[in-house]
Amino acid sequence: MRALVIEDSRAMRSILAEILGDLGFEVAPAVDAEEALEILENDQDFKLALVDWNLPGMSGLDLVIAIRERSGLGDIKLMMVTTETQLGRVVEALNAGADEYIMKPFDREMLLEKLVLLGIEVD
Fold first, then answer.
1. How confident is the model over 76-101, as pLDDT tens digits?
2. pTM score, two decimals?
3. Nearest-angstrom CA–CA distance, 95 and 76
4. Contact (Cβ atoms closer than 8 angstroms) between residue 30 and residue 5
5. Which of 22, 51, 70, 95 could form a disulfide with 60 if both were Cys (CB 3.0 to 4.6 A apart)?
6. Domain residue spans in the chain?
């Protein structure tokens, strides 16, 4: 199972990659939305993408919209991983096409619970 982690913070990318790797995912990192779209154009075999809201350039919200507009990516589960805690932001992300939303800081168990909600079985 493969996951794409779109996060501009190197530390957070490493943390997410480690958690997902421990859960049996093969993880591909991206530092911004443009890199993520390039990866997805060349390889659509991802089950999950974790998307930071506050990315340089194109926001994570705009990335979610762009992914949902592309054919061939309809099955990928999109989870916003962000410090944006306002209820309006959660609603905005879900309306844009995110499947789930997790607020920083979080731990492995919280992420695992969200994956279960998405119907993703992990090791």
1. 999 999 998 888 999 999 999 999 99
2. 0.94
3. 16
4. yes
5. 51
6. 2-117
